[in-house]
Amino acid sequence: MTRADGRHVTVPGRGADPVLVIDGDCGFCRRSADALQRWLPSGWTVRESQQVDPGPLGLTAADLARSAWWVESTAEGTRSYGGARAVGAVLLRARRPWSTALGMAAFVPPTSWVAAAAYRAVARYRGRLPGATPACRTDG
């Protein structure tokens, strides 16, 4: 998993389908996740951070409060990506030409820098975006 300090950590373990963990209180996040589920193949689930125990995922409550997370099992353990990389991982899972290109953009510099900045901007101003609820509001 890539933590806030930039380190990648793999947590031993096996699980079911990959999961996208979102802020379930945020209408914008919920609508975005619902749209991704409609557009992209099945085989992954969406869970609300308020209903998830972060420990078994190798995450902390602070991680879940900071961004969305993609968590998947691999032969080496559990791999997790936060923020723009979480969205990129969902798009890579679709394996369509357009989704693969967009998903890779979240992982390969210099486009990954732009994707990360865009994710931070959307997260900061999500209270002003379509579908926002009062829970989406941040100090931004």
Write a concise synopsis of the structure shown.
This protein is 39% helix and 14% strand. It has 140 residues and is an alpha+beta fold.
Could you characterize what this model shows?
- It is a single chain.
- It is built from 5 helices and 4 strands.
- The protein has about 140 residues and is an alpha+beta fold.
- A 4-stranded mixed sheet has the order 2-1-3-4, covered by helices on one side.
- The longest helix is centred in the C-terminal third of the chain and has 15 residues.
- The two termini are about 25 Å apart.
Helix and strand arrangement:
Blueprint: E1 19-22, H1 27-39, E2 45-48, H2 61-66, E3 69-74, E4 77-82, H3 84-94, H4 97-105, H5 111-125
Parallel strand pairs: 1-2
Antiparallel strand pairs: 1-3, 3-4
Helix pairs in contact: 3-4
Q: What's the pLDDT, averaged over the residues?
A: 83
Q: What is the terminal separation in angstroms?
A: 27 Å
Main sheet properties: 4 strands, mixed
Oligomer status: single chain
Arrangement of strands in the largest sheet:
2-1-3-4
* Content of β-strand: 5-15%
- How many DSSP E strands? 4
Q: Structural class of the helices, strands and pairings? A: alpha+beta
H/E order of the elements?
Answer: EHEHEEHHH
Rg, Å, rounded: 14 Å
Q: Any low-confidence stretches, pLDDT <50, length ≥5? A: 1-14
Gross morphology: globular
Classify the helix fraction into a percent range.
Answer: 25-40%
Number of helices: 5
